[in-house]
Give the backbone structure.
Amino acid sequence: MKFGKTILALSAAVAVSACSTAGPDKSVDRNLFDKKHLSQLKAGVWIDPNGCDHWIIDDGVEGYLSARLDKYGKPVCSGTAPPTTVTGDFKGGSTSIIGDPI
């Protein structure tokens, strides 16, 4: 019985240690064709149903969306466009091989 408890404790330690590893770098485009840092892609602004702004990027294969925040971390609701619309050249980062047909 002591051996079983040792195995159980060892298994739990291994499982917990796996939780501390860092995940993949989300700031890099994982596209196989054009590997660009997200700062090199063009962003537009999508206005959500509440009127708040979100950064949006579409490179033709993957899409990115992030809330637009002020320096205090609060949502920016600029009112520059009606809710549920997109402004800007958010498809400007389309891949050179596939592009974005829409």
In short: The CA atoms of residues 56 and 65 lie 5 Å apart.
